[in-house]
Amino acid sequence: MAQAKKIVMYALTVFILYTIITSPKRAADLVQVGFEGISSAAQGVGQFMTELVN
Fold first, then answer.
1. What average pLDDT does the chain have?
2. What is d(CA 25, CA 46) in angstroms, rounded to the nearest whole number?
3. What is the Cβ-side half-sphere exposure of residue 2, based on CA atoms within 13 angstroms?
4. What is the spatial distance between Cα 31 and Cα 14, in angstroms, rounded to a whole number?
5. For position 54, what pLDDT does the model report?
6. Angle made by CA atoms 43, 38, 26, in degrees to the nearest 5
7. Across 3-29, average pLDDT
8. How far apart are CA 15 and CA 1, in angstroms?
9. pLDDT of 30 above 90
């Protein structure tokens, strides 16, 4: 099981590096979308907690 996890992590790292090298603009767009999603989720949780307290 640990060997499979190591192989998957290695393959994922190679894929990410390949994507960044071959298409840096697209990779930057994907990172931006990811951070926007995280920001929206954090705002939603904050809004929920605020409403819960009130």
1. 92
2. 32
3. 0
4. 17
5. 82
6. 140
7. 91
8. 21
9. no
